[in-house]
TrEMBL record, chains A, B:
<protein>
    <recommendedName>
        <fullName>NADH:ubiquinone reductase (non-electrogenic)</fullName>
        <ecNumber>1.6.5.9</ecNumber>
    </recommendedName>
</protein>
<dbReference type="GO" id="GO:0016491">
    <property type="term" value="F:oxidoreductase activity"/>
</dbReference>
<keyword id="KW-0812">Transmembrane</keyword>
<feature type="transmembrane region" description="Helical">
    <location>
        <begin position="376"/>
        <end position="393"/>
    </location>
</feature>
<keyword id="KW-1133">Transmembrane helix</keyword>
<keyword id="KW-0520">NAD</keyword>
<dbReference type="Pfam" id="PF22366">
    <property type="entry name" value="NDH2_C"/>
</dbReference>
<keyword id="KW-0472">Membrane</keyword>
<dbReference type="InterPro" id="IPR045024">
    <property type="entry name" value="NDH-2"/>
</dbReference>
<dbReference type="InterPro" id="IPR023753">
    <property type="entry name" value="FAD/NAD-binding_dom"/>
</dbReference>
<keyword id="KW-0285">Flavoprotein</keyword>
<feature type="domain" description="External alternative NADH-ubiquinone oxidoreductase-like C-terminal">
    <location>
        <begin position="353"/>
        <end position="407"/>
    </location>
</feature>
<feature type="domain" description="FAD/NAD(P)-binding">
    <location>
        <begin position="10"/>
        <end position="329"/>
    </location>
</feature>
<keyword id="KW-0560">Oxidoreductase</keyword>
<dbReference type="Pfam" id="PF07992">
    <property type="entry name" value="Pyr_redox_2"/>
</dbReference>
<comment type="similarity">
    <text>Belongs to the NADH dehydrogenase family.</text>
</comment>
<keyword id="KW-0809">Transit peptide</keyword>
Length: 429, 429
């Protein structure tokens, strides 16, 4: 790889997500050379992907060019690269565009969808972890409605208009709410010649409550909001298989649907050459100590979703969410400079700032450390926080304009099939 | 096709571009059943495609869902369909989703890129007539710069950083200006480790001036603006071939480039079953009379780019631009109602409202019927007119926010490679 040698130590960061970017910002203007690699040339604001899928936002407004984030940082280089392997013996990163030696390595490659080994579900279901995936889902939803118009077979039409979301975490809940609002507000106007009341939205959760990890009140309220919107909430049900048409579960329950959205789990986006933590239930993450050092190494770190940092409050590792990623990135920035200077590093402590989820218009649940609230005010807090964490003034303005418009007009205008998904990928029944 | 029979005559419109949409609006709330078919579910505002290609705008803000345009019109149906053939004997449209009988048919299928029979150019060059094409070009431009970083071969690097635009019409001129501004304002910041001064932008025009059809003053000024921005303008040169790397011309001139953008011509998007006008130089369009009736038919019409309407001022047919399309659509709406009522139709007369093109920041040329001007004021007029003709309040707001931001910040933030183009499509040399 064409990277100039400098007298500064070289830090290679793999991944431009929340963790990698917050680390990079901390390392700006320091006496280090930083090479950030990502397979995309943009940072994705994942919490709003579901709005891209449901036509509420354009993809460009929740993504930000990584080069632009780094442009004022001296000694920073970006490379668009797929990392294939880490050679820990020679301190090298091997990628599709060549290899690169590092003095320090930070793995911030994030997470990927966890299908728990089910190949059929992986093949036929839709994931929503990246912008292309979110756009594929947007296309498929709209294509299904166009196809529903064409058939006179009632079963087939219902199959096309049913949506099954697996996973009752924030992603699943927010998507279910958005689909329910589309069903109510947009479909009847867009498809006057289709009985869109038949469209069904199901959310299936394997445990006893939605939004596990949030308060009982938030969970109950979210469920009530969803049911008010007409979403069918199935708890204590585990989806076991899907053939592209029929969803089977461990209960006496099946669904006929052309669209299964899999939001039931994530796991670390592992890279060859580093062993995943061998502890059970850690989801392919790298076990790190309180300095984010990967077990067995002083100069290789993991942060964000890829890091499994066990604490007293979180015996199976900190949650795979934006907050730990951002906080670890920032702290590691300080710690790496200390390490290079030969000073003692400061152990990471996680400040739990709470969690939130929106269910729809005027409906959200927010758990802060001191306050818990639900409803309209929570919804405004949710919007404010998401606008605040979005990178870039233009993105904030465009998202804000869209939200105001969507709110005032009860609308979502980005319902465009820019690249058709179905004809290429879905099996015919 | 699942279309209910009513007592109203059925008008089938093929195409939801400027022509089809303005006709549809005229036919709303009338005693006719209208079925509009398009292969996309959205209307594209083509004049701003070049801004999508160059990262200035998101695609969703220059597209508008067709169903939403039609939603308040009774007796209107939309079908997402590829029209395969027109059966004029049985008055049927044959599509990929079935066939449909019509009482009246309006062909408004627009135009497609004209490669004048050169298969190599068709294979290796980039077109910019649709949103997916514009996004492919955006990806390729950015991928080329990422690749330029990786090679130490100076020739290869220059090939990757050279851009050749064929065609000096508004599309070519506007794209050349936008690329020049990216070269000047964004590349040096985004690629500090690349000598982006080596990037070259060429525009090649086969005739003696740019913006043929506009005034001599506009043409000269556009050329001066481009040259000021560092664009190489080649006139009286015809590109004859391209193998993915080397562009050959009819002059003693070749270019080495990984990116040839073909904006040198369009032709009608013909449909099997209707004969194209047999006149020469009409570009596969359907010859129509002053009522937009296709030669030989009373009940089959063509409007917009597909229609070749010969007038005294335009002996080879009205220009293939937005204005004739919109005007023909509106007039045909009135005329069809007259025809159905048995009244006499009114011949179409083209009101030439002028033409305009923007070259870059504060630089545009405008020819109105009474006034001609160039420079800053022209640029503001250009922006105002384009905002005005864009469909939808949200789109206008989002485009406006982007333009203000881009202007104030000298920036274009949508430089995202959402779907890589190069690895899939470009040959390796």
């Amino acid at each position: 790889m064409n990277i100039p040698q400098t007298s500064f130590p070289r830090i290679v960061i793999i991944g431009g997500g929340f963790a990698g970017i917050s680390l990079a910002k901390k390392l700006s203007k320091q006496e280090v050379q930083v090479v950030l690699m990502d397979k995309h040339n943009y940072h994705t604001f994942q919490p709003l992907l579901y709005q891209v899928s449901t036509g509420g936002l354009e993809p460009d407004s929740i993504a930000y060019p990584i080069r632009k984030i780094l442009k004022d940082f001296p000694n920073f280089l970006f490379r668009l690269a797929h990392v294939k392997e880490i050679d820990t013996l020679n301190n090298k990163v091997l990628t599709d565009i060549g290899s690169l030696k590092f003095d320090y390595l930070v793995v911030a490659s994030g997470s990927t969808t966890n299908y728990f080994g089910n190949k059929a579900i992986k093949k036929y279901s839709m994931a929503m972890k990246t912008i292309p995936q979110a756009l594929n889902l947007r296309s498929l939803i709209l294509e299904n409605f166009e196809d529903a118009l064409l058939t006179s077979d009632l079963n087939e039409r219902n199959t096309l208009m049913n949506f099954v979301i697996v996973g009752g975490g924030p992603t699943g809940v927010e998507l279910a709410g958005a689909l329910a609002e589309i069903k109510k507000g947009i479909l009847p106007k867009d498809y006057p010649d289709l009985d869109t009341r038949m469209a069904q939205i199901h959310i299936v959760q394997s445990s006893a409550c939605l939004l596990k990890g949030m308060s009982a009140k938030a969970s109950e309220k979210a469920e009530a909001f969803l049911e008010n919107l007409g979403v069918n909430v199935w708890k204590n049900v585990r989806v076991t298989d899907y053939d592209g048409k029929t969803v089977t579960t461990n209960a006496d329950l099946t669904f006929e649907t052309a669209t299964l959205i899999w939001a039931a789990g994530v796991k670390g986006a592992t890279i060859k050459g580093l062993h995943a933590a061998e502890l059970i239930n850690k989801g392919d993450r790298l076990l790190v100590n309180e300095f984010n050092q990967v077990t067995g190494f002083n100069h290789i770190f993991a942060i964000g979703d890829m890091a499994c940092m066990v604490t007293e409050a979180f015996p199976s590792g900190l949650p795979m969410m934006a907050q730990p990623a951002i906080q670890q990135g920032e702290q590691l920035g300080d710690n790496m400079l200390k390490l290079i200077e030969g000073e003692a590093m400061v152990p990471f402590t996680y400040k739990d700032k709470g969690a939130m989820a929106t269910i729809g218009r005027n409906k959200a649940v927010v758990d802060l450390s001191r306050f818990r609230f639900q409803g309209v005010f929570a919804w405004f807090v949710w919007m404010f926080v998401h606008l605040f964490f979005l990178i870039g003034f233009r993105n904030r303005m465009v998202v804000f304009v869209n939200w105001v418009y969507n709110y005032v007009r009860f609308d979502r205008e980005a319902r465009l099939i820019i690249r058709p998904y179905k004809k290429k990928h879905k099996p015919k029944f």
